[in-house]
Amino acid sequence: MPPRPRSPKPLGTITRGTTNPNRLRRVDRWLAGPEAYRLRRAVDPLVVDLGYGAAPVTAVELFTRLRAVRDDVEVVGIEIDPARVAAAAPLARPGLAFRQGGFELPLDGRRPVLVRAFNVLRQYGEEEYAAYWDEVRSRLAPGGLFVDGTCDEIGRRSTWAALDPEGPVSLSISLRFGAFTLPSDVAERLPKALIHRNVEGERVHGYLRALDRAWLDAAALASFGNRQRWVETCRAVKGDGWPLLGDASRWRLGEVTVAWSAVAPG
Description:
Blueprint: H1 25-31, H2 36-41, E1 46-50, H3 57-67, E2 74-79, H4 82-88, E3 96-100, E4 114-118, H5 129-137, E5 145-151, E6 157-164, E7 167-175, H6 192-195, H7 203-217, H8 226-239, E8 244-245, H9 248-251, E9 255-259
Parallel strand pairs: 1-2, 1-4, 2-3, 4-5
Antiparallel strand pairs: 5-6, 6-7, 7-9, 8-9
Helix pairs in contact: 1-3, 7-8
């Protein structure tokens, strides 16, 4: 889609900005895993951590993790609060920079191949997220990906929606074993596009119920560990016709990804 005209001022509002070290390890592992091909084939390996918060730790971690994929990657942390940008400046280094801005992505005309925005849009109104999704998508490089996600305070329960320049692609759930009773416990961490849709009759509600049923049905495998039980849960859900993406190598990590069409708001 063609880029939107550049806004004269940052798009968005200052959010709470709370963060913790290693909080985004689950989505970073996904970006450096099954989605790493996007970075490897990019003409310009530019990555954005959008709305990194009061401390730049997650931007630094993203830079370190993606450097293992491609050693010439550039990460730009973008924050709307100028005080947060100033506080992050001492951590800048070759390949890692910080800029003031918002969803308009002030990158001097460059198009990022990856944009990660975590715990950002969940603080906006439900009527706002779609416009911001479109804004960021319009600025992606061809084959780029925008990840809009949410997680708990220390990253044990995490979800994210992935969007390419054409629109939403998938929903991922990633859980630490032992940090949930039922898979649907993650519902309070769904992206803004879905968090209010977890009600009877909506696709995402049906998906979470399917995960719960399969998890309970696999209870006999608990003696072999929650990893085995989760793998069987995902296998059963896929067998029931849910369009899961990826395979057991991801399921063993407590992660599962489904095509967006299966959970899109009705």
